[in-house]
Specification:
mainly beta
């Protein structure tokens, strides 16, 4: 477990990177710390992730809504103020949004099995 000194994050000062989905674009602003990644992510209208993800995350919906689809066919619609959490390797999931969404996503070593 790492210790982090107090710090603030001005997301507008963190460079944006674009990641193409099967459809649409995801724009990430990423703060990488030892064992911890914090991202503000925006999915464009019609965004569908281009892969099934097995990584663990804490995903909090800041604005809009999206669907988190599991590879077992379950779908979960999350809207502003809702959060989901999953550990590494416990599900394969991908995201879709019709109208766009802004998310805060936190992941890291603490979500590995056995932690």
């Amino acid at each position: 477990m790492s210790n982090y000194n107090f710090q603030t994050i001005d997301w507008d000062l963190i460079p944006a990177t674009e990641h193409l989905g099967t459809t649409g674009i995801a724009v990430w602003r990423t703060l990488q710390l030892e064992g911890l990644r914090i991202r503000r992510v925006e999915y464009s209208m019609g965004y569908l992730a281009d892969h099934w993800c097995k990584k663990g995350h804490i995903v909090h919906c800041l604005e809009g809504e999206f669907v988190s689809e599991l590879d077992n066919g379950q779908n979960f619609r999350l809207s502003q103020g809702m959060t989901y959490i999953v550990s590494d390797d416990l599900s394969s999931h991908r995201s879709f949004t019709e109208n766009g969404v802004k998310l805060l996503i936190i992941d890291g070593d603490f979500l590995k099995p056995g932690k």
